[in-house]
Amino acid sequence: MKAIRFDRHGAPDVLELVEIDAPQPAPGQVQVRVHAAGVNPADYKWRNGFNLRYMPLPLPHVPGYDVAGIVSGVGQGVTAFALGDRVVATVNEAYAEYAVAEATACAKLPDQVDFVQAAALPCSALTGMEMIEEGLCPSSGDTVLVTGATGGVGRFAAKAARDLGARVIVAVRPTYVDEVRKLGFEDVVTFDNELPDDLAFDHVADTVGGEAVARLCRRLKPGGRIITVATTPIAPEGLPAAPTVFGYHADGERLSRIVAAVGDGSMQMPVARTFPLAEAAAAQQCVEDGSNRGRVVITID
Fold first, then answer.
1. How far, in Å, CA of 123 to CA of 156, rounded?
2. Coil, strand, or helix at residue 190?
3. DSSP 151
4. How far lies 243's CA from each of 14, 135, 157, 208, in Å?
5. Is the pTM of this model over 0.85?
6. CB-based contact 126:257 (threshold 8 Å)
7. pLDDT tens digits for range 65-95
8. What pLDDT was estimated at residue 55?
């Protein structure tokens, strides 16, 4: 199969289009003929070596975590999926014509959701949902601040908090206020403006980081929690609680809920640009530049 791989860390030009053996499904896994692969910030951070401070990365490496395509192989013991099923999944090597996924990390696609839309979802949407449902666990009536709620993670975090009955206040830059209100979130504060005197939060779900978020976190009520997925740290000095970094995990059941919400139109995940597999370097550079109002997806014929 064709795949994108790198054998050293560096700039996007270390990514190479290669021919390698297609992975085969082990027991409990499915093989997916990939039609689209999502591009996440983590992808270029593994490529450029940033994430090596957390753990080593065996080389050579095929990047990517998010795929959508058609089940092309079924491992022993798998009964929930069959050959020909349209699926979205979390995998370990996404930039390739074929990938393998744990069956528990897959979800069937509604007819209304195409492969490009689906591939934009897993990492971002699961992170947002899990940071609320597992990281914060708000009670009905709690007030939850979600920062960066127009982003892929933030919008699903805000939805998850609202679904649990929390009052959701979102924090965005002034230019994003209209956009976040179109998503249905009316309680909005901006990073730059004065805050109401009575503003307070039971919990904070952060996707932005930095001093602007620290200013908001000072309004956290005693006993509340702050979790963040931002690369820019939140300085803990003067805060009612120390920020905790949150990491997502694969979850097919949650992914089914996510694609159902996209399929019925109650949630959207904008896709800004698509690139063919051979242009994966340009796709990663596009994400690294950070100027897109939407996700970047690699398409594979």
1. 11
2. strand
3. S
4. 35, 11, 17, 12
5. yes
6. no
7. 999 999 999 999 999 999 999 999 999 999 9
8. 85
- At 150 the three-state DSSP class reads coil
What count of residues does the chain have? 301
Is residue 6 helix, strand or coil?
strand
Tokens coding 240: 């009612």
Question: Side chain identity at 233, as an amino acid letter?
Answer: P
Local structure of 228: helix, strand or coil = strand
**Closest of 138, 106, 141 to residue 122, by C-alpha:** 106
Give the residue among 35, 13, 33, 16 at the shortest CA–CA distance from 25. 33
CA angle in degrees (0–180, nearest 5) for 24-29-34: 65
pLDDT digits (tens, 9 = 90+) for 170-195: 999 999 999 999 999 999 999 988 88
- Residue written as tokens 């798998």? 78
Angle between helices 122-130 and 152-163 (to 10 degrees): 40
Amino acid letter, 225? R
Q: Where are the alpha helices (DSSP H) in the chain?
A: 41-47, 115-119, 122-130, 152-163, 177-182, 211-217, 252-263, 280-289
The two three-digit tokens of residue 187, written as one number = 């309680």
Q: Which amino acid is at 112?
A: Q
Structure tokens of 238? Answer: 């003067």
